[in-house]
Write a structure and sequence with these properties.
Elements (H helix, E strand, L loop, with lengths): L2 E3 H4 L13 E4 L5 H13 L8 H6 L4 E6 L2 E12 L2 E9 L8 H16 L3 E6 L2 H6 L3 E3 L9 H5 L10 E6 L1
Parallel strand pairs: 5-6
Antiparallel strand pairs: 1-2, 2-3, 3-4, 4-5, 6-8, 7-8
Length: 171
């Protein structure tokens, strides 16, 4: 199983100054319920889209989690959608743990995996673009993304009246 301690991830050049006690690891089956609860707590506030248990089980291999003292504090998925393109999705950190660098580390770990498998670009659709802009993503028109991306949108309860913002980062 792939496990990285936070101490191993944080570099001297990082803007994260404090060391975190948790670990980043690939998600496992037992993480599905806490991930669903975390993601859907934000969905209830209409800050992100809900995910069903079925979707999470089907895509468990795409997820990383940040775990601290046996508790899932955050999650992030990288889903390959095309030859050179992946989507960052279901990205969430418990509200009481935001601003500590956990989200940056989850995102960096997912991006690094994308690079390792040959992904050249990553995009996300979000209601909160500021975090991603600080991480090197730039706003793009949704229409500039390949049609393959829209397969997920058609299943969304907000389609076609979605106001998510598309952002892209070259890896």
């Amino acid at each position: 199983m792939f496990i990285r301690t936070i101490h191993a991830i944080i570099s001297e050049e990082s803007n994260i100054h404090k060391q975190l006690p948790g670990i980043i690891r690939k998600a496992v089956i037992e993480d599905v319920t806490p991930m669903k609860d975390l993601i859907n707590s934000y969905a209830k506030k209409e800050i992100m889209l809900p995910r069903s248990v079925g979707e999470l089980y089907e895509n468990i291999r795409n997820f990383y989690v940040y775990e601290e003292n046996g508790e899932v504090i955050g999650c992030c998925a990288l889903q390959v959608v095309w030859e050179d393109l992946a989507e960052i999705l279901s990205f969430a950190v418990k509200p009481e743990h935001t601003g500590m660098g956990i989200g940056s580390i989850l995102l960096d770990t997912s991006i690094e995996e994308g690079k390792n498998i040959g992904v050249k670009r990553a995009f996300t659709l979000t209601y909160v673009p500021e975090f991603f802009e600080r991480q090197g993503f730039s706003k793009v028109e949704k229409a500039s993304l390949p049609h393959k991306v829209w397969v997920g949108c058609i299943k969304c309860p907000k389609f076609p009246d979605c106001n998510e913002i598309a952002l892209l980062r070259y890896l």
